[in-house]
Design brief:
Length: 328
């Protein structure tokens, strides 16, 4: 690979998918790092991501010195940020340190991440992973237990009834429950709660397909031109439509759902589904059409990678398109 032009976010997503099968993965890692350092990224905010990717590629090839150098630079690229991605970069560095036999350094990297466990839903997974790689599952168990207790105490009152009620606590309980099974522990009250929430989630009805029906931009225009009253269900503008859908997907994920897809519909498809006698705009037709789309091949997996193309088809990267809409 030779970098004649700047790397876009979509290029980085492609590299992530293909690097391990490349003829010279370490060459790919070196080029990524060079692009990040030389400012050859279309979006300078991708530097940390490109460097972390280089570190993971080198780590997978057991080139731990190189992996550590890239991870150091990834951490530097995130230095001024206090977010989940910065935490994940430190966790990656810690995992490489463990693999390199530098256990004290790895623990020194991880200790400051402990407060993230009660702040970011994905921290339970990325803080536990290096501890597992370093043979420190008992430490992970203790940290998760402390975080569970702290979160329960803050909530006060009764245990949450659903994964959705539990929010971040669900991810802590779930990670801890898995880990304690791996350690051969007897169930305690937190494990019982984890299992209740997991069972309830597994038995819950899937979200209605109609809630995940998506009208691409041109179709959205046609739909509202024909049935203006549908703006009540889908929004007045395409931006509002995308924002509603993104928020619903985020809500379902917060409730512990995985494997979500968006169901792109067309006006022609809807009228065809309703048939000559049907009322295409009716809720029943739309729900039936969505249910059929949910069994078809046109589904769009959600979420895309932060740096991948957005699910809405705008051609922009997800983190600059629909990802921020859920916060609006
Ligand atoms: Zn269990
Ligand atoms: Zn979008």
């Amino acid at each position: 690979m030779s970098l004649k032009t700047d790397l876009t976010s979509a290029d980085l997503a492609d590299i992530r998918r293909s690097a391990l099968g490349a003829a010279d993965p370490l060459g790919v890692a070196a080029e990524l790092a060079e692009a990040a350092e030389a400012g050859h990224l279309t979006d300078p905010e991708d530097a940390g991501y490109a460097l972390a990717l280089a570190a993971e590629i080198a780590e997978s090839r057991n080139k731990l010195d190189a992996a550590l150098r890239y991870a150091d630079r990834a951490v530097d690229a995130y230095a001024k940020r206090d977010d989940s991605q910065a935490g994940a970069a430190h966790a990656l560095r810690a995992r490489i340190l463990f693999r390199a036999g530098r256990e004290d350094d790895a623990m020194a990297e991880l200790e400051p991440l402990r407060p993230l466990l009660t702040r970011h839903p994905d921290a339970a997974a990325y803080v536990s992973a290096p501890l597992a790689a370093g043979g420190r599952n008992r430490v992970a168990e203790q940290w998760l237990t402390d975080a569970v207790q702290e979160t329960l105490a803050e909530r006060g009152g009764a245990d949450p009834a659903t994964a959705e009620d539990a929010g971040l606590l669900f991810f802590l309980l779930q990670q801890r429950h898995r880990l304690r099974h791996a350690l051969g522990r007897q169930h305690d009250t937190h494990d019982n709660l984890a299992e209740r929430l997991e069972t309830r989630l597994a038995n819950a009805a899937p979200p209605p397909a109609a809630d995940l029906l998506f009208w691409p931009e041109a179709e959205f225009g046609k739909l509202l031109a024909r049935w203006p009253a549908l703006s009540a269900d889908y929004g007045d503008t395409w931006d509002e439509h995308r924002a509603r859908l993104e928020r619903e997907l985020v809500r379902l994920t917060g409730a512990g759902r995985t494997g979500l897809t968006v169901l792109p519909g067309t006006v022609a498809g809807l009228t065809g589904f309703a048939g000559a006698d049907g009322d295409p705009a009716g809720a029943k037709s739309r729900a039936g059409y969505a249910a059929r789309l949910a069994t078809g091949a046109a589904q769009i997996p959600w979420p895309p990678e932060r740096n991948g193309s957005c699910w809405c088809g705008s051609g922009l990267k997800y983190k600059k398109c629909c990802l921020p809409r859920s916060r609006g």
